[in-house]
C-alpha cells in the first residue's frame, strides 16, 4: 500500500502559498570549540542522524487529477548538500544581522520537488560563534512517526562524528500508472475518499478544520473553538511575503521569583509577560484600550493519552497537543491582576489529569522543544484564524548543556510560521537557565516588533515590582 499523506498533511500542502509558507524553524547559536566546528562536520552529523528519520529522504508525489491524496516516496535524487547549506555573515556578524538573515530564509517556501526541509550552517558571528537554522514543513513532523531534526542532532555530551558509509538505497518512485491504480483501488473500497480529497483541495482551513479534528486526535472541543470571532486589531489582516524576526532572552529565575510571590505557573507568567508587552505595544500605536479589552491567543499544550501514566520519550509522538484559547487581558493596567486573570483561565486546563507538566516533558530525550513547537504549529494551523489573534507556543527545554558534535549550544529560539491573516506568532522555550522568545512577524503589519520584544522584558520587570 502507498504511504499516503493524511488529510491534515495534505491540507498543509494544498493551502500553502507564497506569502504563508508552512514550515517551522529554529535558530540555534553555538560556541565554536577550539578544534573547530565546520560545514563538513555538520554534514557528517546530519547524515548520520538521517537513518532515524526516513521521512527526511522522502518527497511528496502528487496523484494525477487529485484522485487521492499525495504519497510519500523516496527521493531517488536525494542530495544532502542541497538540504544542508552553508552561509556566512560579514564578520564580525551581529545577532541583529543573523536574525535579519533568518527572517529572509523563513520567508522563502520550501521546494516541493524535494524532501521538505533545509538546514543552514551560518558562520561569521562575532566572538567566533556559529548558528544552525532549520526549516521543516509541517507535513513532515506529523506526531505519528517523525520528530524534528533539531531533536536528533543534539546530544547531552560532545560527540565526534566519524564518517560512515551511507548504505541507504532509495526505492523506485511509483509510476503515474501505479499512482492512478492505487487511487482507483482506494476509491472503490472507500467511495467518499475522492470527494473528501477534492474538498480539501479547494477549501480553506475554516472549512476543513471540522473534518480534521478527528485526524489530529481531538485538538480541542468544537464548542470551544467555534465561538465568537477574535477581537479586531492590528494583528489580524492580510500578510505580506516579508518577515521580520527578533528575540528576547530572559532569566528563568525571574519567573520563579514571580511565581513565589504571586503564584501561578511559569507558563502563566510567560503569558502574562507577553500580555503586558502587547498592551504597551497597542498603546504605542494609539489604540484605545477599555479595561475589559483582550486579545485571544491559541496556546497548544501537551496532554496525555487516556490511560497513559506519564509523558515519556517513547510517548512523545503518541501523546497529543490540545489547542486552548486564552483571553489575554491587555486592557488591565495592573500587572498582578493580569497574571491572576491568566492563571485562572489556564487552571481549567492544567488541573486535568491529562495535562503534562514541564518536569514530565523534560524527561523526553534530545531537545524535545524542537518537535513540540513543530507539533504546536500543526495544531494551530488546523483551526480557523478567525477565532484567535496570535499563536503562542511554549515548550520547556533542558537546563543542562547540549551539543551538536563538539559545539556547545548557547541559545535556541523557535520560529513559528504565520497563518493567513495573522501577523504575529511567538515561540518560547527554556534552556540552561534562560527563557528564550522568538517573535516572527509580518514585515509590513508589525514592522515595530522590536519594540514589542523589548516590552516583554519590561512587563516581566513589572511583575517583579520593579517598574510600578
TrEMBL record:
EC number(s) from the headed UniProt entry: 2.3.1.20
Domain O-acyltransferase WSD1 C-terminal: 319-463
Catalysed reactions, as listed in the record: an acyl-CoA + a 1,2-diacyl-sn-glycerol = a triacyl-sn-glycerol + CoA
Keyword Ion transport among UniProt keywords: no
Top-rank lineage group of the source organism: Bacteria
Listed InterPro entries: Acyl_transf_WS/DGAT, O-acyltransferase_WSD1-like, O-acyltransferase_WSD1_C, O-acyltransferase_WSD1_N
EC class (word): transferase
Pfam family, one: WS_DGAT_cat
Record pathway: Glycerolipid metabolism; triacylglycerol biosynthesis; Lipid metabolism
Gene Ontology biological process: biological process involved in interaction with host; glycerol metabolic process; response to hypoxia; response to nitric oxide; triglyceride biosynthetic process
Keywords in alphabetical order: Acyltransferase, Glycerol metabolism, Lipid biosynthesis, Lipid metabolism, Transferase
GO cellular-component term (any): plasma membrane
GO molecular function: diacylglycerol O-acyltransferase activity
Domain O-acyltransferase WSD1-like N-terminal: 5-270
Family: Belongs to the long-chain O-acyltransferase family.
Protein name, UniProt field: Diacylglycerol O-acyltransferase
Native organism: Amycolatopsis taiwanensis
Upper classification of the organism: Bacteria, Bacillati, Actinomycetota, Actinomycetes, Pseudonocardiales
Amino acid at each position: 500500500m502507498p504511504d499516503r499523506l493524511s488529510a491534515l498533511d495534505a491540507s498543509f500542502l494544498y493551502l500553502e502559498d507564497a506569502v504563508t509558507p508552512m514550515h517551522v524553524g529554529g535558530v540555534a547559536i553555538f560556541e565554536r570549540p577550539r578544534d573547530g566546528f565546520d560545514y563538513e562536520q555538520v554534514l557528517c552529523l546530519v547524515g548520520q542522524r538521517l537513518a532515524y528519520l526516513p521521512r527526511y529522504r522522502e518527497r511528496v508525489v502528487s496523484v494525477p487529477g487529485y484522485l487521492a491524496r499525495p504519497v510519500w516516496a523516496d527521493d531517488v535524487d536525494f542530495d544532502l548538500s542541497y538540504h544542508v547549506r552553508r552561509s556566512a555573515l560579514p564578520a564580525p556578524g551581529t545577532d541583529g544581522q543573523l536574525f535579519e538573515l533568518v527572517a529572509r530564509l523563513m520567508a522563502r517556501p520550501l521546494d516541493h520537488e524535494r524532501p521538505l526541509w533545509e538546514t543552514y550552517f551560518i558562520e561569521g558571528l562575532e566572538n567566533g560563534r556559529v548558528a544552525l537554522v532549520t526549516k521543516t514543513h509541517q507535513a513532515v513532523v506529523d506526531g505519528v512517526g517523525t520528530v524534528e531534526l533539531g531533536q536528533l542532532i543534539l546530544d547531552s555530551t560532545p560527540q565526534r562524528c566519524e564518517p560512515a558509509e551511507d548504505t541507504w538505497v532509495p526505492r523506485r518512485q511509483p509510476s503515474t500508472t501505479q499512482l492512478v491504480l492505487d487511487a482507483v483501488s482506494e476509491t472503490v473500497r472507500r467511495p467518499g475518499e475522492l470527494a473528501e480529497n477534492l474538498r480539501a483541495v479547494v477549501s480553506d482551513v475554516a472549512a476543513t478544520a471540522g473534518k480534521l479534528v478527528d485526524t489530529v486526535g481531538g485538538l480541542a472541543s468544537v464548542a470551544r473553538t467555534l465561538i465568537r470571532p477574535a477581537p479586531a486589531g492590528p494583528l489580524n489582516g492580510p500578510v505580506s511575503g516579508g518577515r521580520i524576526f527578533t528575540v528576547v532572552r530572559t532569566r528563568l529565575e525571574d519567573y520563579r521569583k514571580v511565581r513565589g510571590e504571586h503564584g501561578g505557573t511559569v507558563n502563566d507568567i510567560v503569558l502574562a509577560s507577553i500580555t503586558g508587552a502587547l498592551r504597551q505595544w497597542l498603546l504605542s500605536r494609539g489604540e484605545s484600550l477599555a479595561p475589559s479589552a483582550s486579545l485571544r491567543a491559541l496556546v497548544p499544550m501537551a496532554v496525555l493519552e487516556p490511560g497513559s501514566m506519564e509523558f515519556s520519550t517513547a510517548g512523545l509522538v503518541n501523546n497529543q497537543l490540545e489547542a486552548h484559547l486564552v483571553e489575554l487581558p491587555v486592557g488591565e493596567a495592573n500587572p498582578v491582576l493580569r497574571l491572576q486573570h491568566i492563571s485562572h483561565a489556564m487552571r481549567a486546563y492544567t488541573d486535568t489529569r491529562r495535562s503534562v507538566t514541564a518536569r514530565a516533558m523534560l524527561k523526553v530525550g534530545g531537545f524535545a522543544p524542537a518537535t513540540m513547537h513543530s507539533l504546536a504549529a500543526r495544531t494551530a494551523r488546523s483551526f480557523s484564524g478567525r477565532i484567535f489573534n496570535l499563536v503562542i507556543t511554549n515548550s520547556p527545554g533542558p537546563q543542562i548543556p547540549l551539543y551538536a558534535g563538539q559545539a556547545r549550544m548557547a541559545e535556541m529560539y523557535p520560529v513559528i510560521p504565520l497563518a493567513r491573516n495573522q501577523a504575529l506568532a511567538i515561540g518560547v522555550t527554556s534552556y540552561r537557565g534562560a527563557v528564550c522568545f522568538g517573535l516572527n512577524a509580518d514585515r509590513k503589519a508589525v514592522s515595530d516588533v522590536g519594540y514589542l520584544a523589548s516590552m516583554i522584558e519590561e512587563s516581566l520587570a513589572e511583575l517583579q515590582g520593579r517598574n510600578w
